[in-house]
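Transcription initiation factor TFIID subunit 13
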Amino acid sequence: MHTQITSSFCPYNFYKGRRRYRYYIVIAMAIYKKTNKYKQRLFGNDLKALLYAYGDSSSPNAETIQTVEDLLTCYLVDLVVDANKVRLIRGNNKLSVDDIMFALRNDPVKLGRVYDLKEMDRQIMMAKKMFGDDDVDKGSKIKDGSEITKVSDSNSSKSKNGSKL
């Protein structure tokens, strides 16, 4: 028997629906008042840098960081809960990127970013296999079927007596 997983952390689903940003400040303050001020903060330094990148001062208000972190945590919890529902319907044991992509199917900007990150991950994996320390045979294949070849380093060639050139 599966237990129903709900998002009880976020009291308001403010980002869903047609009027998603109409009462943004009121809801953000309501969330801020309901959260514990002494809980562990995970994204403080990253949010400080992000706020500075978007035009805030170099040392933003602590309440601003806490409020944005609460909103971010609320969004991530709801996203993972939606993806977990998809996982349960599909019958998988683990949450996958495909489940998150299905949960983001109505948001084309975020879905496009997931596609970009997935492609970048594939390219990094190909580059690691191509230039890695492990022996990769010429013409070996990766998951997607494309061939890779190991590039030999001309400085590592050995002379007849075994010393490096």
